[in-house]
Design goal:
2 copies of one chain form a homodimer.
Chain A lengths: L2 E7 L1 H4 L2 H11 L5 E6 L4 H8 L5 E3 L2 E3 L2 H25 L4 E4 L7 E5 L11 E6 L1 H9 L3 E4 L2 E4 L3 E4 L2 H12 L4 E8 L17 E2 L1 H9 L7 H13 L4 E6 L15 E3 L2
Parallel strand pairs in A: 1-2, 1-11, 2-8, 5-8, 11-13, 12-14
Antiparallel strand pairs in A: 3-4, 6-7, 9-10, 13-14
Helix pairs in contact in A: 3-4, 6-8
Amino acid sequence: MMDLLVIKIGGNIVDDKYKLRVFLKNLSKLKCKWVLVHGGGKIATKIAKDMGVESQMIEGRRITSEAMRDVVSMVYGGLINKQLVSDLQSLGKNAIGLSGADGSLINAEKRPVKNIDYGYVGDVESINKEFLKGIIEMGLCPVIAPLSYNPKWGILNTNADTVASEIAKAMAKYFNVSLVYGFEKAGVLRDLNEPNSIIAEINIGNYEELKTQNVIFDGMIPKIDNAFSAVKEGLKAVYICDALQIDLMEQEGARLGTKISL
Amino acid sequence: MMDLLVIKIGGNIVDDKYKLRVFLKNLSKLKCKWVLVHGGGKIATKIAKDMGVESQMIEGRRITSEAMRDVVSMVYGGLINKQLVSDLQSLGKNAIGLSGADGSLINAEKRPVKNIDYGYVGDVESINKEFLKGIIEMGLCPVIAPLSYNPKWGILNTNADTVASEIAKAMAKYFNVSLVYGFEKAGVLRDLNEPNSIIAEINIGNYEELKTQNVIFDGMIPKIDNAFSAVKEGLKAVYICDALQIDLMEQEGARLGTKISL
């Protein structure tokens, strides 16, 4: 099977023109096939404000009203997505922007209302594997906005980390998939005050120990748990790394952030 | 060769929820392959205003500043395009939204500055025929936003009528293409006060006469001239019709608006 990278970048890169340029330049150096999933960034909040649409957050999650759904459709599916596609085209990569509705790529259920009504938020149900495989086999580089689709509710807002891991797991049927979470640090650090103390590898052998030693704690635990569950579903590895160093992936003798595998 | 319809709808349909629903429902009844090109609508102007971006028009053409380019990227490429794709998916059509940057579909030159600087406006140079053919052959229904792409300037704003005719002419290499301009009337009328006075057919035989009789005049002349030039470049026919009646195209014994052919 051929290698495929599924790379997720967050708002901190999308919002920063310089970082974004470096990331895309390094991404375009890669020889292997890849899929890019992008997050939203602060620009959605700013545009919502300009339009008089209130940004409501409950427990760190965005509540997506109908008006806010329009904003994220525009900003994620239009502004950010088309900008990334255009930039990649100018770097010689034949990119294609996709949302969850395009080709019925990301089918979701609207999140059920329990204590909180999240509004137009989608929980991923299935990925149209054959469609995405076909796009990749045409030599195209998919750039995916974190929007899913439901036949009754239409476009739904979905967490970009989740979109990336669902896409990666679905593509494991056809490719040797590695999932890369690009963030602002060079990897998972042994000591937060030491930028060079990157943990090179987390596997089932050392994970419990790292938790006991309190090296991995708080918000990092669910992230690593998710990475393990993805690896168990057939991924080769998950990397947590500085997105700007993505070109290290194919550099002889280089290491890319923290590698999580079985 | 297989039949292909390239259908253009304007802002008057995109802006009107009821008309849009009827159009999409009728479109989804068609058995032949089709490509939909959509215009912008008043919503771009409204959102620009909300965001404090000035809408400047010179001689009926929108001047596209950098800020306005962001607005049309969002509104055409995101909001309207994803809404259409989502609605078509819910009607059982496997739609995919595309801008000119996606798959390098619509390559354009930035309009040269002469008397007027139109800003980020693109004049179509070439269509990536093989890409669009590949998408159609995958069984997908392309929904195209009127945005073109240039490697130096990025996303450019382009007239939707022009996008539709360039796409139609390019696809004539592989398909029996008919181009449909959907507008608010049932066809070209012999008498503007008589909605039923549709001219069924305009061809080289009767065109001069219709112009001499002042039946076709003013703004309609360049439209018909463009239609003839498209037909000369290999299209089967151009239809000017009520978009809401698109299903008449495949109805036994029915006639769709005004047909322009050689």
